[in-house]
Write a structure and sequence with these properties.
alpha/beta, globular, 46% helix, 5-stranded parallel beta sheet, 122 residues, 5 helices
Length: 122
């Protein structure tokens, strides 16, 4: 299973990528919104983990673009963000996010949410 991890924080990328790879997933990394969108459109992804606050294009805009494209509209998207205000959670849901994890993320919570969202597409 191939997962795109889109986040601009190096320490977050390192920890999450290691956890996911240890669990047997292939992980691609994007450090900004435009790169995330490009990878999503050019790779066969099973899941996207998407931060909200990123350079070049925020996560909400990336999600809108993904849902507008028939090629990427069905890829499950899980937001991973420190932004946890009710308006952010509602906007994520309205735009079509499958889940929302609030940083810092415990490894067991991450893997449970990833597995849950991957089971839904199998």
């Amino acid at each position: 299973m191939k997962i795109l991890l889109a986040d601009d924080a190096k320490n977050i990328i390192l920890v999450l990528k290691m956890s996911l790879e240890k669990a047997g997933y292939e992980v691609l990394v994007a450090r900004d919104g435009l790169s995330a969108l490009d990878l999503a459109q050019n790779e066969d992804l099973d899941l996207i983990l998407l931060d909200i606050l990123m350079p070049k294009m925020n996560g909400f805009l990336v999600l809108e673009a993904l849902k507008d494209d028939p090629e990427t509209a069905e890829i499950p998207v899980v937001f991973i963000s420190a932004k946890s205000e009710e308006k952010d959670l509602k906007r994520a849901k309205t735009l079509g996010a499958n889940d929302f994890l609030i940083k810092p993320i415990k490894q067991e919570v991450l893997l449970t949410v990833v597995e849950k969202n991957l089971k839904e597409i199998r």
